[in-house]
Amino acid sequence: MYLEEDYLMLSGLQHFVFCRRQWALIHIEQQWSENERTIDGQLFHAAAHNKEKIEKRGNLLITRGLHIKSSQLGMSGICDVVEFHKSENGISLSSYEGLWEPYPVEYKKGAPKEHDADELQLCGQAICLEEMLLCRIPCGSLFYGENRRRKKVEFTEQLREKVYDMAAEMHDLWKKGYTPKVKPKKGCSACSLKEICVPKLSKAKSVETYIDYTLSGR
């Protein structure tokens, strides 16, 4: 259990999975830089939230911009959309008759990714909702703007365990105030922090390596 003053941003989970150094630069060192991708993403999310807070369509309730938190993860954040489907297996909601099953939906500007950062962020949202609403949420969806389609995500025990592991590692780095060293990869060229991170420098030889190389005559 974490105290609220120690909560980390749930949205940082996606940064952390993609690149631990990127997460640390943003959340520990408070460094940020915009590029076309980050601005497009912000506009896309703003559009998702730019509607009535709660919308009812028959047996469906749609909430936007719902604030969530979890003392077990030590995280807080905002859900793009949480749908509540009327169901006998659901929970009661104030001001609404019947029982409702929560179903989180996270909006993403681009296309599905090769890694599981989006799935882990969505699962983190579900864990927060479960703690707040005292229920079990088996699945949710990721909506991708590029193909305008939803991708269903099952919140398996393996996925949940990975969320807890990532959260614990994030808290450990936060407590230490440690920024991991860069590990250059394919995604570095598209990162808005590449001029701050300077991943190319990691490929430079150390002084010791240079001296050894020079003296060896190679």
How would you briefly describe this protein structure?
Helices cover 36% and strands 28% of the residues. With 218 residues, it is an alpha/beta fold. Strands 1, 2, 3, 4, 5, 6 and 7 form a 7-stranded mixed β-sheet that branches.
Strand content: 25-35%
What is the mean pLDDT?
A: 83
Q: Report the helical percentage.
A: 25-40%
Counting DSSP H or I runs of 4 or more residues, the number of helices is 7
Q: Give, in order, the helices and strands.
A: EHHHEEEEHEEHHH
Q: Largest beta sheet, briefly?
A: 7 strands, mixed
Q: How many angstroms separate the termini?
A: 56 Å
- The radius of gyration computed from the alpha-carbon positions, rounded to a whole number of angstroms, is 21 Å
- List low-pLDDT spans: 34-44, 200-207
- Which structural category do the helix and sheet elements fall into? alpha/beta
> How would you describe the shape?
globular
β-strand number: 7
What does this entry look like structurally?
Helix content is 36%, strand content 28%. Strands 1, 2, 3, 4, 5, 6 and 7 form a 7-stranded mixed beta sheet that branches. β6 and β7 form a beta hairpin. α1 packs antiparallel against α2, α1 packs antiparallel against α4 and α4 packs across α5. The radius of gyration is 21 Å and the shape is globular. The termini are far apart. The relative contact order is 0.17.
